[in-house]
């Protein structure tokens, strides 16, 4: 990885050095809009044709049958099933603890206010396929959906769908599995077809085509909401001279191997450590099956030499990483100052991989710097909240005059009148 001295860069050069490579890519808007239009107009027939031309897969049906699901599940070996069970247990434990409690209180005598939570009715899960079948993503998306109480949960993944994805979807209570990938899968879930359920909200990561499709359908009132604009994976590591270079290299490569458009960043006050990490990267790359992909990602990645850990925190907050790993002598001491990150991993014994699979936290996280305003996926994303209020006559008498005055100040006469009529009737009844 290229090593840069942070203090030798001016503000423009610093911003350029922190830029994600994928942010410069564009030009997909019209193509994705065309795919969405084809799906809306052509339904199942268009989806089958798009699957043939874009995914090079021949299928006469879009949904896996119960027999196909059972057959695929039977092919998953018992050792993998046991690992999936362990992960499911931890993910369920952490997400069940997020179940919200309703609120009911009197803000004034006779003025009752309540907050209630309701699950989304229908949700769609997108699970990428390709060279890395993301079994873990099925768990991360489906488990909170079920715990939240969603009535129907459907899943799309590009064909051919990996057996372990199918098994995990069945195990996590997914109602229907569709052999659909890319922008056409997003469009199908957003608008529905004879086979595919139209959903209220779409969850899950994907490539630039999927991300663009999610953004387009979410801006259409007839489309569907989305979880977040998730894109290529990224990680930033803050490390001091006590950190293990081999550990850091392994964490950087765990994200670099996701795809050529992934980005990894190391921030450290120790040039000696940075040089050790570069040596370790080369040594570990030689062992990886996806070394070519990781090398492409590393070409757009950086190591920044900072003055101190305080400056490292400033750099991290400016980058706003999806994953943030802190490998310092006292990592928890930095936590109060770390403002922008999707998920934080503290200490030498907490590789990012545990969060991806089995610690219990959710690995669906905001990228592209969106962690400044978006949160990691949680159970609350599968629910909506709404308020209730109920006033007694005494309650209306208590706050009514203030409401009348505020409405009159805003020249909203009908608002004022709705209160005034009631107060007048109460006076007659007194």
Describe this structure in words.
There is one protein chain. This protein has helices spanning 11-17, 29-54, 66-74, 78-96, 135-148, 163-171, 182-191, 208-218, 245-256, 271-285, 291-299, 309-319, 352-357, 393-409, 413-429, and strands at residues 2-5, 103-108, 111-119, 122-126, 152-157, 176-179, 201-203, 225-226, 234-239, 263-268, 302-305, 323-327, 343-346, 383-391. The strands form 3 sheets. It has a 6-stranded parallel sheet with strand order 1-11-10-9-12-13, with helices on both faces. Strands 6-5-4-7-8 form a 5-stranded parallel sheet, sandwiched between helices. The chain has a 3-stranded antiparallel sheet with strand order 2-3-14. With 430 residues, the protein is of the alpha/beta class. The mean pLDDT is 96. The protein starts with a strand and ends with a helix. The protein folds into 3 domains: 2-20 and 232-360, Rossmann fold (3-Layer(aba) Sandwich), CATH 3.40.50; 29-229 and 380-384, Rossmann fold; 392-429, Single alpha-helices involved in coiled-coils or other helix-helix interfaces (Up-down Bundle).
Task: Please give a handful of descriptors for the protein shown.
Rossmann fold; 430 residues; 3 domains; single chain; alpha/beta; 15 helices; Single alpha-helices involved in coiled-coils or other helix-helix interfaces
CATH superfamily of the largest domain: Nitrogenase molybdenum iron protein domain
Main sheet strand line-up: 1-11-10-9-12-13
Reported for the largest beta sheet, the result is: 6 strands, parallel
N- to C-terminal distance: 81 Å
Sheet/helix structural class: alpha/beta
Q: What oligomerization state is this entry in?
A: single chain
What is the count of β-strands?
14
How many whole angstroms does the radius of gyration measure? 26 Å
- Percent strand equals 15-25%
How confident overall, as mean pLDDT?
96
Low-confidence stretches: none
Total of domains = 3
């Amino acid at each position: 990885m290229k090593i840069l001295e942070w203090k030798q860069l001016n503000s423009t050069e610093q911003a350029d050095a922190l830029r994600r490579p994928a942010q410069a890519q564009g030009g997909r808007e019209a193509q994705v809009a065309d795919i969405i239009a084809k799906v809306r107009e052509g339904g199942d027939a268009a989806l089958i044709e798009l699957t043939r031309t874009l995914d090079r897969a021949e299928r006469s049906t879009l949904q896996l049958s119960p027999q196909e699901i059972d057959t695929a599940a039977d092919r998953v070996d018992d050792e993998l099933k046991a690992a999936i069970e362990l992960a499911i247990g931890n993910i369920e434990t952490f997400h069940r603890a997020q179940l919200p409690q309703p609120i009911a209180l009197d803000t004034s005598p006779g003025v009752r206010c309540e907050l209630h939570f309701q699950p989304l009715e229908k949700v769609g899960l997108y699970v990428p396929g390709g060279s890395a079948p993301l079994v873990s993503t099925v768990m991360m998306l489906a488990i909170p959906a079920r715990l939240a109480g969603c009535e129907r949960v459907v899943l799309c993944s590009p064909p051919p769908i990996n057996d372990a994805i199918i098994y995990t979807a069945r195990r996590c209570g997914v109602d229907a599995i569709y052999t659909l990938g890319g922008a056409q899968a997003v469009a199908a879930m957003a608008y529905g077809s004879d086979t595919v359920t139209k959903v209220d909200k779409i969850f899950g990561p994907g490539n630039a085509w999927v991300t663009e499709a999610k953004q387009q359908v979410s801006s259409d009132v007839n489309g569907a909401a989305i979880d977040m604009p998730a894109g290529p994976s990224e990680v930033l590591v803050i490390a001091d001279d006590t950190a293990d270079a081999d550990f850091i290299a392994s964490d950087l490569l765990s994200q670099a191997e996701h795809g050529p458009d992934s980005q990894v960043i190391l921030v450290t006050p120790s040039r000696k450590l940075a040089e050790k990490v570069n040596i370790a990267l080369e040594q570990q790359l030689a062992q990886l099956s996806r070394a070519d992909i990781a090398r492409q990602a590393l070409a757009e990645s950086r190591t920044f030499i900072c003055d101190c850990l305080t400056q490292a925190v400033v750099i991290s907050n400016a980058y706003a990483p999806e994953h943030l790993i802190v490998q310092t002598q006292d990592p928890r001491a930095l936590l109060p100052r770390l403002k922008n990150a999707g998920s934080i991993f503290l200490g030498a014994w907490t590789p990012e991989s545990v969060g991806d699979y089995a610690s219990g936290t959710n690995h669906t996280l905001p990228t592209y710097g969106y962690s400044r305003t978006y949160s990691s996926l949680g159970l609350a994303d599968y629910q909506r909240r709404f308020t209730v209020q109920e006033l007694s006559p005494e309650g209306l008498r208590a706050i009514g005059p203030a409401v009348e005055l505020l409405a009159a100040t805003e020249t909203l006469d009908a608002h004022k009148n709705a209160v005034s009529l009631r107060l007048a009737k109460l006076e007659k009844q007194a």
